[in-house]
TrEMBL record, chains A, B:
PANTHER family membership: ASPARTATE AMINOTRANSFERASE YHDR-RELATED
EC number: 2.6.1.-
Official protein name in the record: Aminotransferase
Recorded family membership: Belongs to the class-I pyridoxal-phosphate-dependent aminotransferase family.
Length: 398, 398
């Protein structure tokens, strides 16, 4: 019989998707060029030329049977070695290929990490504002989601609220830096404090607490932002990565999970991942794409455009009277809405054909997400609309 | 904390994998050419030239951003249309693109199908001999596995045993034709009888019973075998397919699920699949591979070698005194072991460097699986060993 659980999900509204749909319909009405769509986190720059070139090369220089044949469920050993080497060099880690598990994007990596270090019924802590898909991801693993409210002045961690929520039922925390939707990068001060707190709570509770670090925006780091690698701060860290953003390959569903070699039972955590795959039916990821990202591990798309878009938007919006914590990376920013009701605010924005996502979707009302993974000229064209929007609110106040 | 459930799976022995490992170690000792490894179902013929050519073409003729960007979770519409059209033409079906869901191989398709039409705690019926991974697949969906013993004289369905097992808790059946490990294709007589029985039981129980048809070997059909498409016989059928075998792309993890348009709530079943993806972290499959199989939907690898291997092995083994139901497709056969204890038999075979998998692994003792997806010359070279093995048993009897 049709599953009630999944059928019920059909009626849950996905706000982001709805707004993107509205923008699309509006574009059909008045033309693409008159619509300012900042609703979706879809990379706007193509994969670097080298990616397609690498695919051509692999097809030409490797026996066909070898390219497309079954690989180990954990991923091709040579690819895991290439990626481990890159991480070790960049972040001073000590990964062996066996600590890595190739996954179907960050979603796949998270799906495995969540199941590997928790039992159904455990609590998992996430920090507002958070990516809305964390809800189905964690519910799918049978976990109870405990949300730490945002520190809206910095979007670093609200430690007082976190401490209140830490209890023996918590076996994992999920962080996301650079953050979707705020673009904030957790500072080394924050990560140091977080590590100290978790070490203390582990001792107190008598069991490990794993930090699951969702890092698809890791390479989208802006000038002057400190590069912080959470696993460097806390042993029990599982890093989840995707090449969706860094190489603009979101459709290829390719990423990995890396267990910190210093984590408790590190090797066993990596080893259970293929077992998890067997139970969810997600056995491995395209061998051709594995071979490709292995060879392109140290490349990125032309990510500079995201920083230019951020600079332009941040200075303009601030000038127009918006209040916003400046992003350190990603292609998002998360200003305060100009009225407390962020849903009403985003609705009002659509009157100017500006499509934004209310903070409520990310568990953080009173804000809105602006996804600036769009061509630069769209940002330039949109600025007068943001100005008009601010003026409308100003007039109301006056 | 490390998940007990998945950690426990690490200690379960995977017999097929163990035997394949033994064969590999033995090959290192005495050389590949002296080892007769029939343990693994890994295609031995490469993907057709056209597959790699198609990938080159897609990379050259499609904007990069378009190839690799996010697609709908259900899969790219044009690809689902290409596949639906191919199925409609070949099997007289009436699929719309919306009835198809692109999945990470047959495992991914099954993972979604199982969850879409059952509730945790339901019973699912499988038929011995069955692919051992059905156990983790069904357990992962929270289902209780009910195994119908084999009709070892035909490997069609043992209907008496099936009827005994049908009860209101059964919401789905899982069939696999051509079958792994027997190579048997369910006849139209069998499927007609199965459909009639399920129609009757649906009425009696007052709820739908879905037939999940696992068909990765569909295109590996031997001369003279009737091509039967289960969805043609029974409305409530969900077809799960993979290009692993037909196009020799097992590493690319690409397949689909197709809901019979005549199934109860057909469209909703297809619609819940992307919801299921959200909870298991398996969101979609490589867009480049989707585009590729869409364009190559009607091609296959050079599958004739499997039939030649079957012919050669079947006639030789029968001559040596083995008893075997002749396969109608796939690249497997499932003869009776020459002693009742199939594990002891397969152990004895290893003394002759013949690596076979005991039927016990497939829920059907007293048999062994022979995977003949190997180069023809390996089959020719192995025949004297099978003869020697038979003679050893003959001498014991004399």
């Amino acid at each position: 019989m049709l599953s009630k659980r999944y059928a019920d999900m059909l009626s849950e509204k996905d706000i982001i998707f709805e707004i993107a749909g509205m923008a699309k319909r509006r574009a059909r009405e008045i033309g693409e060029e008159h619509v300012y769509n900042f609703s979706l986190g879809n990379p706007s720059v193509p994969a670097p030329e080298a990616v397609n070139q690498t695919i051509h090369t692999i097809l030409n220089d490797t026996p066909t049977l070898q390219i497309h044949s079954y690989g180990p469920s954990a991923g091709l050993p040579q690819v895991r070695e290439q990626l481990a080497r890159s991480l070790n060099r960049r972040f001073g880690m000590d990964y062996q290929p066996e600590h890595l598990f190739m996954a179907s994007g960050a979603a796949g990596a998270l799906g495995h990490a969540l199941r590997a270090v928790t039992e159904p019924g455990d609590e998992i802590i996430v920090f507002a504002p958070y990516f809305p898909e964390y809800r189905p991801y964690t519910q799918g693993a049978g976990l109870r989601l405990s949300v730490v409210p945002a520190d809206v002045d910095s979007f670093q961690i609200n430690f007082r609220a976190l401490e209140e929520r830490l209890n023996p039922a918590v076996t994992a925390l999920l962080i996301n830096s650079p953050n979707n939707p705020s673009g904030i990068v957790l500072s080394s001060a924050t990560l140091t404090q977080l590590a100290a707190l978790l070490e203390e709570k582990q001792r107190q509770f008598g069991h490990p607490i794993y930090l699951i670090s969702d890092e698809p925006y890791r390479e989208l780091l802006f000038t002057g932002t400190e590069e912080t690698y959470p696993a460097r701060f806390y042993h029990n860290t599982i890093t989840c990565y995707s090449f969706s953003k860094s190489l603009s390959l979101p459709g290829e569903r390719i990423g990995y999970l890396a267990v910190n070699p210093k984590a408790e039972q590190a090797m066993t955590i990596a080893e259970v991942c293929p077992q998890i795959s067997r139970t969810i039916g997600c056995n491995g990821t395209s061998t051709l794409m594995q071979l490709t990202v292995g060879r392109c591990a140290d490349l990125t798309s032309q990510l500079e455009i995201y920083e230019r878009n951020k600079d332009r938007l941040f200075s303009a919006l601030t000038e127009y009277g918006f209040s916003c914590v400046e992003p350190g990376g990603s292609f998002y920013m998360f200003p305060r809405s100009l009225e407390p009701d962020d849903v009403a605010f985003c609705k009002k924005a659509t009157e100017l054909d500006l499509f934004l996502v209310p903070g409520t979707a990310f568990g953080c009302p009173g804000h809105f997400r602006l996804a600036y993974c769009v061509p630069e000229e769209r940002v330039v064209a949109a600025l007068p609309r943001f100005k008009q929007l601010a003026e409308r609110y100003q007039r109301q106040k006056d």
